[in-house]
Amino acid sequence: MDGLAALPSEGAIHKRASRKRTSSLASNDRSASSPPLPALHHWLGTPPLSASSSRDLAPNSSLPSSTSAVTSKNLAPGSPNAHRRSFSALYLRESTPGRKSLRNRQASNASIASTYTNHGGGENLHKSLLRSKRSQAHQEHAENGSMGRRWIRYMHKRGLKSWVVPSAVAFATLLKLALGVGSYSGQATPPMYGDYEAQRHWMEITKHLPFREWYTYDLQYWGLDYPPLTAYVSWICGYIGALINPAWFALDSSRGIETAGSKLYMRLTVVFFDLLVYVPAIIMFVKVWQGTRSKRTQEQAILLLLLQPALLLIDHGHFQYNSVMLGLTLLAVNFFATGNDLLGALCFVLSLAFKQMALYYAPAIGSYLLAKCIYLGQRHGTTLFTRLGLTVTAAFALLFLPFYVPPFAPGPLHILHPITRIFPFSRGLFEDKVANFWCASNVLVKWRRVAGEGETGRRWLVRTSTALTALGFGPAVAGLLRAGWTTRIKDHTPNTKIQAKAKADGSETTLASNPPPFLPLLSYALLASSMSFFLFSFQVHEKTILLPLLPLTLLMSAAPPGSALHNWGALGNNVAVFSMWPLLKRDGLAVPYVACVVLWNRVIGYDLVGCWEGGVVQVLSLAVYAAALALHALELVFPAPARYPDLFPVLNVLISTPVFVLIWLWSLKCGVEVAWALGGLGGSSKDRAGSPAAVEGKGAVDVEGAGTAVEGGAGARRRRVEGTGGYFD
Amino acid sequence: MNEEKQQTVSRRKASVTQNDTRAQTDIAEHTGQGSDLRPKDTRWFTWNITRSDWDILIGSTTIKLLLYPSYRSTDFEVHRNWLAITHSLPISQWYYDTTSEWTLDYPPFFAYFEKLLSIPAYFIDPKIVDLQNLNYDSWSVIAYQRTSVIITELVLATALLRFIPGSVDPSVQRIISAALFLHPGFLIVDHMHFQYNGFMFGILLWSILMARNGNKLASGILFAILLNFKHIYMYLAPAYFVYLLRAFCLTPSGQVEIKNFLALANAVIGVFIASLGPFAVMGQIPQLLSRLFPFTRGLNHAYWAANAWALVTAVDRILLKYIQFTGAKIPVDADGVASSSRGLVGDTVFAVLPQVKPIHTFIITIICQLAILAKLWTNPSTKSFLTALTLCGWTSFLFGWHVHEKAVLLILVPLSLLAAERHAYFRTYLIASVAGIFGLFPLIFTPAESVVKVVYSALWLAGVYGLLSRRVYEYPKSAIYVVIDLGERAYLAGFIPLLAFVTLMSLRSHRISSPSNGEDTTSSNLEFLPLMVTSVYCSIGLIWAYLRLGFIYLFEESTYQGQLSTIQ
Questions:
Q1: What is the ipTM of this complex?
Q2: SS (H, E, C) B491-555
Q3: Which of A153, A201, A707, B460 is the most buried (most CB within 10 A)?
Q4: Chain A 264-303, CB below 8 Å of chain B: which residues?
């Protein structure tokens, strides 16, 4: 029966196709406002197109990539489009009228389909047959190929639809609690213990000391070096914990306390804040960014994000509160997508104020907001810019209030204490063995020797790493700003109806509260920016891979198993956990490491061999997994040689770093493609208006009269644009 | 156009079923004409494992793996010690060794099983099987023993899988099988507390499966084997005895089937010879029996199992308090007063009520079981057998001498198979499961594990209830049913405040005991109270559910035909 539901009825297809045709003629026909394909990313308030269309073939990557691959391979090698493979695939996909209906027809009756497509020639019959077979297999896989999907389908069939999300959250919580039974970082290793003790110690000092001593008290023993929001949260946790049992957070005397009760309390605070911030953020993300996808796809995305192994292991095994910082950033991104820029900015400030690592996202988010200001034009843009500036400044001022206002702080200059604690440039280039550029290249080039001794050397390293990082995220930032510029609303010539309408109404809110067309760039920019920080910046921990993982996992969350996007996401996640293996092993989390990774891959239906197409990412994945497994086997059998005690961690770094570099390059490439597509569709570039794709894009824009029009236009662009991301292989 | 659509649909359906051999089998069975469609199904080693089955296995194994470092009871060291005994001593010494206080007190098959396990253990870490290496708890032994539990539990998983084809409604049986495999009882007792119940209940379920499939000889043999693994299954033996005698060794008209009888008798004797033979040759049977049946223990186990005696003991304690408080002139046993102040430790001696001797418990158990067995004798169907089996175990649990709380699994496992029969069974199952699982909670008292056990059980209960309740719902027939229904709901809802009370008390006791361990009388009383309340509250539910099922079985069964009755 599922198969039936997945197929739109023939009538609907015809209707849609005919709508499409009439719509391009009668540009003011509002009834024809639905685009031929469901838009990619939608935000709150956009109604789903229809049950059938959203189920089957929704966004970017849900078009089985095999189709595109085959399609592009169909092109003659010498054809002028051959070098633009991914685009040509999209081009074919969108220029064929009712492409989607065709595909389904192929699935049902290949011979009819092949004649209908006007591809002509007998060989196409065979090719489209092949294609239909493959796409069928893919669809089968997408519907039923993963544990999450199967479970969701089962629940839906039993009439337990409304239970899916609650029970998914409950299961994830159970998993987190079970993980919490195990050991944490620095367990039973006096005198300093580990990250767990640091967090517990902060609860202890914030509970007992006045604000002025928070950032100055006994810095040698885990002095507070996170921004104020962490301190406030610690204070609340310490306060409540001390109500339950004062011994858990007694000043000084509770150092290194490891009773079962205090451990459970600490674990529960992580689970609680996870449920308070991260889980709602995930659910909102799915609703906002994937609102047009089928309910099952959304639920699968929630499952995928909930069970992400790296975050589970670090937060609930190793012990940290990363999910709060990530959740706040995710909320910010969600609010940007709904057009609530100020709320989004506030959330991002909170994220920054919880953990300074969120700075990895700052270039992307900052340039997005700037691009939006540019996009809105001089008047509205300036207004937005001012508001954003005021919000951010006020938020930071409020958050740091107790550290410079006299009744709490000795004087305004006291604020230097938290600032210097938060940004410690006095530490080394990297910590332990981390899978970034510096540590990997350190095998060949001894950077410390290159930089020279002492303060000058350190300064050189800081400068070089900062420059490289800026180079790393530069393209993403430039892409966003350029997209803002090319799609900007000119005061005299509005380039879409919605802009015209907004201008006519004189309502500032309509424009500002709608997301700009370059919104999809943001996800790639977040990935590029955080990954370049991870790879090139100064003083990086292995755990910081969680930051690039968030946008990567968000991107993959709605992609069907077997698509290139899905493969990139799964590869990134698996390698990220693998790159943290030395840390996890030290924490005694070897068994949870295996269990969580296996479970997650099963839940998302990661099947490299079953969907083999020989794409770049698949070959790369196979090679990397083989190397990783070999390394694990080696480590299990042989002890590290005495001469090279760090042999295994270094090998780990050498396996992981190339993958991260490739993901970074891939994100840049996707960003460039998206930006290029945006520019190509912009109202300003008339030269491309002749191309079929642009015509269709224009058509979609023109058709939409008012209200949700931007959605349609932007959706069409975004669809194209995201698609390109999915076809990198 | 419609034709086209139909075609596609049917093709898709076909491709779906190709991946789902179970569905194929079901279709074939229902249509009755698909003998060529399922050639594989006739072979016994075709499990028809679907991808969803693997999902359940992987999901549950993940949780079990995460619980590796969790709390483990002394049973963990008991089993490690048995590994050491069977590995390093000759078989003649197994039942004599007293190096550790945890002497071997399971029947010989289990000793052989431990011997088998000790062989790989030696290669993983020789210290595991070192007899003198008491209380060894390195990572290697934890991982090894926990893994052995997970792997041997596959016996249970395979039995449950085999229950699905051939059941009346495979989709319901699938839910029941999953519910049994994921049972919180197994998670708590096997994967945290540490025992091999999953393995042994797997054998029991294989035996029941054989009975269902009509292979009663195999059923009897498997049960004999099971008895030689763990003698607690003697609780179920009367039902097996009557069932096999009536349904296998006698014809429906009462003639003796001498061939069947001899086959069964020889097989069972063979099993016992294989098990006890070596020890009989060495003349160690008395020593072995004294290990297996230590009659020196008290009426109640350390925590009172949630049975009738918990209720009686609680009444006695309350009466004692009442007498001490009011000074009423009622003779009080001094030993009983001492016993009550000791809380949970040691023998239970009543202060006010007359003392209970082993013979009393024995007589009560026998009388209750006789009524059930008489019914089984008149109606030896599979469903009747399953119900009688459950009730037999239940009677022994409620009235037996020195019953462990873990024995509640003997009720819950066979009862699960009846859960979806009809609403009355489902309600019984629900009450017994909640009360029984809650009664297991005191086994795990460490904070982090307590949270896991509660969340896991709640999730399991929600899943079972959500999937099964609507399928068996019946409208209450008269006012009395409405009253009973309300009472039961109130009872079930009462577990929430009970949980809150127990949690608060444990928080309190943690807080008190952490700074000073001096005053143990007050703290032990405080620790004792939640345990006592738990036992009493759970025992009320278990006794009520027992009466409920017993009533249905004895008086209603002939009028009502459920799903299982159609299988013979």
A1: 0.86
A2: HHHCHHHHHHHHHHHHHHHHHHHCCCCCCHHHHHHHHHHHHHHHHHHHHHHHHHHHHHHHHHHHH
A3: A201
A4: 264, 267-268
Mean pLDDT check: name the lowest of A6-20, A161-175, B198-212, B394-408: A6-20
pLDDT higher than threshold 90 for residue B156: yes
Q: What is the pLDDT of residues A202-242, one digit of tens each?
A: 999 999 998 888 888 888 888 888 899 999 999 999 999 99
What's the whole-model pTM score?
A: 0.82
Domain that includes residue A396, residue range: 166-187+258-674
Domain boundary assignment for chain B: 51-67+153-248+359-567, 308-356
Residue of A466, A474, A483 lying closest to A517 (CA atoms): A483
Distances (CA, A) of B321 to A456, B355, B522: 81, 18, 15
- Say how far apart CA A173 and CA B455 lie, in whole Å: 9
| Structural domain contains residue A288 | yes
Q: Are residues A622 and A684 in the same domain?
A: no
- Whether the CB of B448 is below 8 Å from some CB of chain A: the reply is yes
CA–CA min distance A721, chain B (Å) = 32
Domain boundary among A628, A652, A674: A674
**Number of folded domains that form chain A:** 2
Residues A170 and A131 in one domain: no
| A271 pLDDT more than 90 | yes
B466: chain A residues, CB-CB within 8 Å: 158, 160, 163
- What is the rounded CA–CA span in Å between residue A526 and residue A361? 6
Residues in chain A, total = 729
Looking at chain B, the whole-number percentage of residues with pLDDT higher than 70 is: 83
For A13, A153, A302, A559, B16, the CA distances from A142, given in Å and listed in that order, are 21, 12, 16, 9, 13
A616 and A647 together in one domain: yes
What are the tens digits of pLDDT across the range B117-126?
A: 999 999 988 8
What pLDDT was estimated at residue B341?
55
What pLDDT is stored for residue A453 in this prediction?
A: 74
Residues A690 and A610 in one domain: no
Question: Residue A210: inside a domain, yes or no?
Answer: no
